[in-house]
Amino acid sequence: RVMGNIIFWLVVLGIVGWMVFNYFRIRKAAKFVDNAAFEELIRKGQLIDLREPVEFHAKHILGARNIPSTQLKLSLAALRKDKPILLYENSRSSRVTNAALYLKKQGYTDIYVLSYGLDSWNGKVKKDA
């Protein structure tokens, strides 16, 4: 019984430690910004929608380019390192986290993420028919 409790607490501690590590790792890779700051950055940045094409065509932020997270490695040549990169998806999940970390590893330094994704966006959107 004591050994079971020790194992339980070691697992909990490991999970919490991993979460804290990831939190600081993503914070070093990208800046999470609210709607107002994101909208200001759109004018001078590269707006990237990381969702799949079906999701993108249903609704996306006006001016966004669709580069699904699964295709990001193949699309690096389309992204400039001298302009901010603005990333979003439906909500905050591993897609945007992994994309920001990958871009940082590839030498991109000015990366922004819409904090709560398209689900919370109150700016202009385009819906394809």
How far apart lie the N and C ends?
A: 61 Å
Which strand-content bin applies to the residues? 15-25%
Largest sheet: 5 strands, parallel
- List SSEs in N-to-C order: HEHEHEEEHEE
Class of secondary structure makeup? alpha/beta
Describe this structure in words.
This protein is α/β, with parallel strands linked by helices. Helix content is 42%, strand content 16%. It contains 4 helices and 7 strands, in the order H-E-H-E-H-E-E-E-H-E-E. It has helices spanning 2-29, 35-42, 53-58, 94-105, and strands at residues 31-33, 46-49, 60-61, 65-66, 85-88, 111-114, 125-126. The strands form 2 sheets. It has a 5-stranded parallel β-sheet. The chain has a two-stranded antiparallel sheet with strand order 3-7. Helix 4 links the parallel strand 5 and strand 6. The longest helix has 28 residues, at 2-29. The chain is elongated, with a radius of gyration of 17 Å. The N and C termini lie far apart (61 Å).
